[in-house]
Amino acid sequence: MMGKAVRERFEELKKNALKDFPGMDGKKGITIYVGTATCGRSAGSLEVLSSFEDILKTLNIEARIVQVGCHGHCYAEPMAVVSKPGWPPIMYGYLTPNRAQILIRRFFNEEDPALEWALGAMEENDIVPTVYETPRWSRERRWLLKNCGCIDPEDINHYIAVSGYEGLTCALKIEPLEIIEEIKKAGLRGLGGAGFDTWKKWDICRDAPEFPKYLICNADEGDPGAFMDRTILESDPHSIIEGMIIAGYAIGAESGYIYVRKEYPQAVSVLTTAVYQARELGLLGKNILDSKISFDIKINQGAGAFVCGEETALIASIEGKRGMPNPRPPYPANRGLWGKPTLINNVKTLASIPKILVYGNEKVSSVGMEGCMGTAVFALAGKIKNAGLVEIPFGTTLREIIFDIGGGVPPIIKVSNVAGELPKTIKKQFKAVQIGGPSGGCLPESLLDTPVCFDTIVETGAIMGSGGMVVLDEDNCAVETARYFLEFTQKESCGKCTFCRIGTKHMLNILADITQGAGIMEDLDLLEELAETVKQGSLCNLGKTAPNPILTTLCYFREEYEAHILDKRCPSLECKDLIAYYIIPEKCQRACDACVGSCPTEAIYTRRDRLKAIDQEKCVKCANCMDACPAQYDAVIKISPISQLPESEPRDDNRSN
Amino acid sequence: METLSLTINGKEIVAEKGKKVLWAALENGIFIPHLCSAGENSLPFGGCRLCFVEVEGKKEPVASCTEEVTDGMIVNTRTASVLRLVRMAFELIMSRHPIICRECPANKKCALQDISREMGFKLKPKKLPQILPDLPVDDSHSLFTYNPNLCVLCGLCVYICNEIVKEAILDFNFRGFITKVGTFQNRPLAKAKCNSCLKCVEACPVGALSRK
After folding, report:
1. What's the confidence (pLDDT) of residue A2?
2. Which pLDDT does position A3 carry in this prediction?
3. Which of A132, A148, A167 lies at the terminal end of a domain, its last residue?
4. What is the mean pLDDT of residues A279-293?
5. Which residues in A have their CB inside 8 Å of a CB on B?
6. What domains does chain B contain, in order, with CATH numbers?
7. Does any domain span residue A137?
8. What residues does B199 pair with on adjacent strands?
9. Which residues of A touch B45 (CB under 8 A)?
């Protein structure tokens, strides 16, 4: 109906956008793309950026510097892509201001692309191997993250130049019901963690008789160790805005909210710019792209409550009330914001919408596995070599994600103080992966061949959640991990319902007792009963999922709980109250004093035989001596239970330490 | 008005369409423990988690304050799985509530005592240790006292103050275990411009808010 006018208007915008877009191919001169999302900035990318600017000025090279988002390779930040005519665009990682200068000098003065710092080329060529051949990229299927790190998120023209808002143009050509049908065929499920069929939610909301309707983008990502939404918000904000306009058209809503947490200041500022620019170009507001559709977006900042990620609490928060969940039903799709039908979707779900319309449902549903089609984005964190974001088709196994893509558990490297001696590498064993943050569970090695999908993960006792994956190694205690996550949920409980408010407190106390060696075996039964009843009885999903870390660790690592209780021993040597530091006399070196200076409490003394020993009374178990002890001696160890500590040798009275 | 019939604990009951199971049961003399419900005409709060019942055909017990009656519904209020949840919920509440009935202003008119009597639950928690807060008692108001240590966070006073009286003096403060009912910035009640309607005091099911 309005297809033609819309298409014409879009082509006009795209023509305009392409004029200014540098592109990766180097046809428009030298361009340097520096990743300045939050992860890049915290690794020092702004310093790298100004270093690039300085050197280009000094060498009188005319180049354009573009600030882009994050590619997801957070481990290699700060990163930059250098695109120089005659060369393929090359991606560099682990940059420092100094390296940036050297790189430019070598590349532009000596035609040497400094390949030792390169991660790979971004295009096929016969000079530099591409990044797509690396294990990480070759297993990834980058749809949601396609533009992340490749475009300037604060310039709408960049997004339009890479076919952004094409999905909207396709959507406006067809009827709302056809859009919902397309989403249904693509098999899209809510990527915020629950995995509810997106089309069903849309359909219910569309059918609800009341008007006006509202659309909310849930960008209140709060799980410790999850940062997928942040990256998309910061690197590709228009994909979310585009998804929202399409969703608004499909359900008949004319106003939308993005509920983003205040703790993401960069995301808030990028989004604000994006909404402003979209409005300027007529992509938001009245008569979008000269069609009859109107839609506008308001950005709402969350005040830092984890529970506001729960949809009813989120709605209460937007309404200006305390962020507390309400019983469902009524579901927000029938009775939500201001009592009107409201559709709430996660950032990733909404960002998927334009892709489905551009690629077509066949392509999207061709990857993944039955019941879970398309791709999922995970945030790898914890004891993993290549932390960052990965986007993989559903059905990829956990082992592939952690070991092939993430590079597995990194070893500990200990430096020797003997000149010329190589550092000692201590390999660490994988222990578990915590999926789904504080609401998820700890899965052991035996479950690593589980294919990733909403349903298979639930079977293991964890949940897919928003996609945070925290890898634990042999030095992480299962009980302490459960305690850590429970402390988080207890603090973040809104206090409304009995089970979550008081039940989690009791569970936390029991876990704290166990980690301190004050647990008894009966505690485990009580813990299990509490966990089960809290899971069943809580009002909202925060409470219902809070016991998951306990239930899964009790199921897969019960022997660790028992060791803590029965032997007062922490098998992973992490729980401070159950371990003691000890210097092995046979390994300790008389001439060395490295540990003495490292101790903040002067607990290390010299024995009569001039070896060192630790005064357990004074020791605060900070592990400094262990780090300070040179690799060639490696004399400091942790002992658990404390009762196995050998008797201490007397002090040399003639010495002060 | 459309009515439908259902069975609760084997007793056949006629109830209006749209009624919640909790009220249908209570009107017919079947006791279901509950603390946080402000009445049939208000939206259910769903906080106390005491009103669980089992509905045939549903896998898990459901909160009867949010469950609408349906025709031919078969409800049981005392099955093992219901009692397991309700007992634990009650025990959790009592693990944070000092058992000082004799000194308590609500003695003999306390909802917790009623539940204990009707359900045969002991007031003192059996499995859980008590974690009692030691919060200051607000004695500043001339007409009533607020003792947050006795509060069970049912939210009735908050509901009445905000939705019925529309004074918005009381709301929840803080998060997690230390959540408490209080005024804006936790000021003393006397300084909170309260209009002294005392509706919150009448609503309090325990001795947290009491007349002087």
Report:
1. 61
2. 66
3. A132
4. 91
5. 305, 307, 322, 324, 326-327, 329, 490-499, 501-506, 509, 526, 529-530, 533, 536-539
6. 3-87 (3.10.20.740), 134-212 (3.30.70.20)
7. no
8. none
9. 327, 496
| Number of helices (H), then strands (E), in chain B | 5, 9
pLDDT tens digits, A402-412: 999 999 999 98
As a whole number of angstroms, the distance between CA A188 and CA A243 comes to: 13
Q: What is the mean pLDDT of residues A474-502?
A: 94
Q: How far apart are CA A320 and CA A330, in angstroms?
A: 20
**A411 & A512 share domain:** yes
Q: Residue A230 class from Cβ within 10 Å (0-12 exposed, 13-18 middle, 19+ buried)?
A: buried
Structural domain span for residue A545 = 377-567
Q: Are A118 and A99 in contact (CB under 8 A)?
A: no
Chain A neighbors of B92, CB-CB under 8 A: 498-499, 502-503, 506
> Which of B49, B155, B137 minimizes the C-alpha distance to B92?
B49
List of chain B residues with pLDDT < 70? none
Residue whose entry in the numeric block shows the structure tokens 């952690």: A402
Considering the domain architecture, whether residues A356 and A400 belong to the same structural domain is answered as: no
Predicted confidence (pLDDT) per residue in B92-101, tens digit: 999 999 999 9
pLDDT at A134: 86
Q: Which of B135, B175, B178, B184 to mutate to test the interface with A (most CBs of A within 10 A)?
A: B175
Residue of A349, A379, A346, A391 lying closest to A147 (CA atoms): A391
Task: State the total domains in chain A.
Answer: 4
Element (H, E) at A501: none
Question: In the numeric block, which tokens belong to residue A27?
Answer: 């046809």
Cβ atoms within 10 Å of A586's Cβ, excluding its own: 7
Question: The domain spanning residue A347 has which CATH number?
Answer: 3.40.50.11540
- State the nearest Cα–Cα gap between A539 and chain B, in angstroms: 7
Nearest to B85 among A305, A509, A537 (CB): A537
